Amino acid sequence: MNRETVIAEALDLLDEVGLDAVSTRRLAKRLGVEQPSLYWYFRTKKDLLAAMAEAAMAPHAAAPLPTPDDDWRDWFLENTRGFRRTLLMRRDGARLHAGSTPAGDLDRVRRKMEFLVASGVPERDAQMAMLAAGRFTVGSVLEEQADPGPGPDAAAELPADMPAIDHESAFEAGLALILEGLARRTAPGHRVPLSSNDPTTGGRSIR
Questions:
Q1: Which of 13, 20, 47, 176 is the most buried (most CB within 10 A)?
Q2: 141: which residues sit within 8 A by CB, 6+ positions away?
Q3: pLDDT digits over 93-122, tens only?
């Protein structure tokens, strides 16, 4: 057993039972070891969840970085879509990720920001747009993964004039609005100052 094995088994356990049911006791039983053995790799459950969250992001972290020849609008869309796809790969993936701070991919975040700035996007606008897109994506996937899906009582729970939500279409519509707003702010001669109360990002949800 090694650290990577523990994380991989923990993610498989997540897919099987959901985030609320993940415990070090269940994980130890799955690995065929005593529970205290896990403390050699992770001192607390919080440490384990943080490692799981980072590992779950591996597909997105392995995506190619933008190149100078890329159109920043197309890249912005695909980068955000790739983030969503990665969150959806794991059961409760958005809940696992929510609130996590990137550790191993800070250099990738920096290079993405440099690409947007080199493409003509003002640095602060690029930072806020990436933050907004990341948080919008996490929130969208949280709603999607909490949706129980079609069932015998699903139609009865909705008002008669409200159609069932198409999560992907809703996500694409919201993402298009974020991109449109950023493109307008980037257009020459069109500058709207950001509020002086803008929060710092700390790297969170900028993916």
A1: 13
A2: 84, 87, 88, 93, 94
A3: 999 999 777 666 788 999 999 999 999 999
C-beta separation of 116 from 68 below 8 A = no
Banded model confidence at residue 162, pLDDT cuts 50, 70, 90 = low
Q: What is the DSSP annotation of 2-32?
A: -HHHHHHHHHHHHHHH-GGG--HHHHHHHHT
Is 137 within 8 Å of 171 (Cβ atoms)?
yes
The structure tokens listed for 95 are 């809940």
Mean pLDDT throughout 43-62? Answer: 94
Q: Quickly tell me which residue has 């920096």 as its tokens.
A: 110
Q: Cβ atoms within 10 A of the Cβ of 179, count?
A: 18
Angle between helix axes 106-118 and 72-88 (nearest 10 degrees) is 150
Question: Which tens digit of pLDDT belongs to each residue from 63-98?
Answer: 999 999 999 999 999 999 999 999 999 999 999 999
Calpha distance 27→21 (Å, rounded)? 10
Question: Are residues 207 and 60 in contact, defined by beta-carbon separation less than 8 angstroms?
Answer: yes
Q: What percentage of the chain has pLDDT greater than the value 70?
A: 83
Residues whose CB falls within 8 Å of the CB of residue 144, separated by 6 or more in sequence, listed in order: 88, 94, 167, 171
Alpha-helical segments (H) within 89-146: 93-97, 106-118, 123-146
